[in-house]
Structure formats: C-alpha cells, structure tokens
Amino acid sequence: MKRSHWLTGLVILLSFFLMMTLLNNVIEMGERLSSVHPYLSGVFYVLIGVFALWIGTVPIWWIIKSPVYDYSSLLRGENAEPDNSELEKFKRALSRDEEDIKRLEGKKEDELKEALVRLIAEKERQADETIVQSSLLTFLTTAISPNGLIDVAAVIYYNVKMVGSMVKLFGIRPSVMNIAKIFRNVFLTAFVVNQLEELEINEYLEEMLESFGDVAAGKILSKTMDSLIQGTLSAFVTLKIGYAAKTALLDPNKTKAKGFRRYVRRRSRQTLVKEVLPRSVSAVPRGFGKAIEMMLRRMTKGSKQGA
C-alpha cells in the first residue's frame, strides 16, 4: 500500500511538472507566432485548446459508448464457460461492420463460440499491426521533429488514438482503473521525452564511443543520437502501452499475473528490433537511416548473445 501511495504521488508530481513545462512551451510558441502575425498565435491557441479538449473527452467517450466485457472465458475457458446470453453480448460487441455481422449471423452455441474465437484472433492480428504502426509513427515524429512541444503532442496523440482504435476494434473498453493506468503511462512517456529534448548528449556519446576505439560510430551517432534516443524510447513505450492495453481489453486478470510486465517488455523489445526500426530506415534521411541500421545491428547482436 505504501508503495502504491508513493507511486501515485510521484505520478502526480511528474504530471504537474509536465503541465508546467507544456504551458511554458505553448506560451513561447505562441509569442513566436505572434511576432510573425497575431492571427497565427490565435489559431495556434485554438488548436491547442481543441487538442486538450479531445484528450479530456476521449476516456469519457469510451466509458459512454463501450461496455466492459471479459473475453477470457471465451478465449481460454477460464472460470465458467460463457452461456448463451454472454455469447450474444460478445457477438454484439464484436460485430463492428457488415462483414462481421454476416460471419456471425445464424450461429448458435458451440458454432457461435468457435466463430467468435476466430474473429477475436483476426482482430488481435489487426490490433498488433495498429500497435506497430502507432509505434512507427511515434518514432518518426519524435525522432525527426526539432520541437519538444511537437514531440509531446505526438506521443499523446498516437498513443491515445492507438488505444481508441483497439476499443473500437474489439467493441469493449478497459475498466476505469486500467484507463487511468493507460493515461498515466502516456503522460509519463510524454514527460520523459520532453526532458530528453533538453539534454545535450551528443558530445558525451561521441567521447564515450571514441574511448572504446569506435571513432566512426561516434562521429555518425553523435550527430543524430538526441533524436534517435527520443524516437526509440517513444516507440518502445508505445509498444508497451499498446500490448498492455490489448491485454487489459481481452483478459484483464492477466495484467495482474506474475511476469506480465516482463512479458510486455520482452515482446515490445522484439517488435522494436524486428519490425519498427527496420521499417523506419526507409522513411528517414539517409544519414539517419545509417545510424538506425548501426544501432539495429548492435541490438540484434546483443539479443543473440543474450539468448
């Protein structure tokens, strides 16, 4: 209990610092735009207001529009087998378009259960692709963007949108407690990314790599490492948030199981190395892509040695 109170206090404190930092960044950006034209700053403040309003209304919209169901009894046969009334509830939740409705139409009991399991498995694959795409977009935006405010907005937007897409896909929402945890992790990530923007680590990195005799790597990575670290961290945490949110939707009890966090970290790390970073190479400038490839080779080599 004490640990929980300590973590809650830390989150509140970090959230306060994030809000103050964001407010300062918004005011600075507004003043810069005002020096160009007063209308620009006005439009900017309106957009910021709309964005803040969207963040505040998204969880409320989830709570109003989507129910809380536990698919674990259907997927893994935990507790009691779902009865006909539960199967019908699952059917209504998962029937998001005409194709889903046609696939489930007329099916009863065991046949309906098997069809629902297959449909959820298909939607899980779609959710995994959504998670990868959101991580990739977060990486590219935070790695290339020169502005900390844009980095924070990108982290919040892509993560909230990712979870919202899964809520719509599965037709259910997380519990209020899990929604609070998701937003806590999103804002903590935004805070860390914003703080990294303030650090100047290029010189330290170059000196460190050169001390190991890796002069070429030091020259290449030192020019892009600030952005690369922000992008990689943002992408990795987006993967963690995505996989944890998917589990909270489909099997909430699994999030409390021992080893769950370790599983999420391991899967996120594997997806980052095997999918997100390789896809990002073709979407960034050539020099930046070389730095990613170099980091990817080292990460892949390290994971093989660890195995």
UniProtKB/TrEMBL annotation:
The lineage of its organism: Bacteria, Bacillati, Bacillota, Clostridia, Eubacteriales. The keyword Ribonucleoprotein does not apply. It comes from Alkalibacter saccharofermentans DSM 14828. Signal peptide: none annotated. The chain crosses the membrane at residues 6-27, 39-64. The keyword Zinc does not apply. Residues 87-129 form a coiled coil. This is DUF697 domain-containing protein. It is found in: Membrane. GO terms for cellular component: membrane.
